[in-house]
Design goal:
globular, mainly alpha, 220 residues
Length: 220
């Protein structure tokens, strides 16, 4: 008599696990790539400034943007090729500007943000750190293509309540990645005790952003 309910529960659990794993895998495959947000969090982890707040913001914003896409925003954006094209161009310009700022720090203002007495980074308040992260996250048009359009459109194909299991999987992937990134930054603190290491990081950051900007521009 209990065979059918048991089979039903097993099917439901399997469907939920599949949706969660899909959200986790899709989100992780996209956020692992080097981007402005990842480099910002890594930079804060190396400095040891408000890392938990940065991780919390990134996970919450990723979950919110994916949820918006799943709820229907992805379909709205997908029906407007002009808007998608504008987002790609805007993303390319954003990444280009981020790269230019990084090279400015590396070549023209290498001591910006350094304490002249000890060669250490000047501490910023949590609101200052999170406001910078918010700008990088929410004003980067390319973020919306990744989270809202791409991930959101995949999640929207899930059935009923499984859409939100997908969002939970995506949020879990985001949490996993940024915790790993924060841990990696802590391990690199000894290396970045030397101010020259910051110049190297800014130089590499700028180069990465230029490559990403070119890739996004080509896609547009």
């Amino acid at each position: 008599m209990n065979a059918r309910p048991t089979i039903g529960r097993m099917f439901t659990q399997h469907a939920a696990a599949s949706s969660w794993l899909t959200g986790f895998t899709v989100c992780l495959s996209l956020i692992v790539s080097i981007g402005a947000q990842n480099l910002y969090v890594l930079r804060q982890a190396v400095q040891g400034q408000h890392v938990r707040a940065c991780v919390a913001w990134c996970v919450a914003s990723d979950a919110l943007l994916v949820a918006l896409g799943v709820a229907g925003m992805a379909q709205v954006l997908g029906r407007s090729p002009t808007l998608a094209h504008a987002l790609q161009l805007g993303g390319a310009l954003f990444l280009l500007a981020y790269g230019l700022f990084a090279w400015h720090r590396a070549f023209f203002a290498p001591d910006a943000g350094l304490n002249a007495s000890g060669g250490e980074r000047v501490a910023r308040g949590v609101l200052g750190v999170l406001s910078g992260l918010a700008v990088i996250t929410l004003l980067n048009p390319h973020v919306y293509l990744d989270t809202v359009v791409l991930i959101g459109s995949i999640g929207a194909r899930q059935d009923g309540w499984l859409k939100w299991v997908f969002v939970l999987g995506a949020a879990s992937a985001s949490l996993t990645w940024f915790v790993v990134l924060a841990f990696a930054g802590r391990r690199l603190q000894g290396v970045f005790a030397n101010p020259r290491a910051w110049r190297v990081l800014d130089t590499l950051t700028g180069a990465m952003m230029f490559v990403l900007a070119w890739w996004v521009w080509q896609g547009a």
